[in-house]
Design brief:
Distance between the termini: 49 Å
Largest sheet: 5 strands, antiparallel
Shape: elongated
Order of helices and strands: HHHEEHHHEEHHHEEEH
Helix content: 40-55%
Strand order of the largest sheet: 4-3-7-6-5
Strand content: 15-25%
Number of helices: 10
Radius of gyration: 19 Å
Oligomer: single chain
Length: 236
């Protein structure tokens, strides 16, 4: 079990790596967060986190990056589920409502979600209808710089629609974060999904998909906010 300072160091490593996409050094954490301890103490905490499998050191001289286990710890312990961060989706019910039909309104909301998250957005309903938005967002990310990573992403993209339809019938109505081998969108990716109710009683699902290095707290808040917008009578 991590002590309070080690948990704090892990939280800052995840926050910094999500922000910069660069390995995080002990000196960098001390400088940015004004930690009340020395850089040597933070290095010792990083060694403990590495021994626990929560972070890894990609190169001998580099800082640390979170592992899948590290992200899981962060999601379970550092994102308060009862107090989601307030985020703004740059679209209004009035603007979406100008679209000629409900599917186009969903698509307009999905485009706004893709802009707000910087990741890809998947939408599907039991109608059936589906849309994939924001793929260029993924291709611009530093996580997909190499030919190998781009090819793996391309293979994953082929699975997106089927994966979302599977989740549409299996998941519940609460927001879910799915990582690693259990992620139907791809084991190297991170995803956040939520089901919602359609005006006619049918169901739909939304998912934000990106690299495992995604801002989970923000994306959870975005999906919760989008679900509220979809289920408002004004959007019908």
């Amino acid at each position: 079990m991590l002590n309070e300072r080690q948990a704090q160091v892990l939280r800052y490593i995840v926050d910094e790596y999500v922000r910069t996409a660069e390995p995080v050094s002990s000196k960098g954490l001390c400088d940015r967060y004004a930690l009340d301890c020395s850089s040597a103490t933070v290095r010792n905490d990083m060694a403990v986190l590495e021994a626990e499998g929560l972070v890894t050191q990609p190169h001998t001289s580099a800082g640390r990056v979170p592992t899948e286990l590290g992200y899981r710890y962060y999601i379970a312990n550092s994102i308060p589920s009862d107090r989601p961060r307030t985020v703004h989706i740059n679209v209004t019910i009035k603007a979406i409502g100008r679209a000629p039909d409900f599917e186009e309104r969903l698509k307009g909301l999905g485009e706004a979600l893709a802009d707000a998250s910087g990741d890809a957005v998947m939408l599907a309903t039991t109608k059936p209808w589906s849309a994939t938005l924001g793929i260029p967002n993924l291709l611009r990310k530093p996580d997909f710089r190499t030919e190998e990573s781009i090819l793996k992403l391309a293979e994953s993209l082929d699975q997106f629609d089927g994966a979302l339809r599977t989740l549409l019938h299996k998941t519940d109505d609460d927001v879910q974060v799915i990582l690693g081998e259990g992620n139907p969108f791809g084991s190297d990716l991170g995803s956040v999904v939520i089901r919602h109710r359609l005006p006619d009683g049918e169901r739909g699902i939304m998912g934000i998909v990106g690299p495992m290095r995604m801002d989970y707290g923000r994306n959870i808040a975005l999906l919760n906010q989008a679900k509220k917008m979809i289920e408002q009578p004004l959007l019908v």
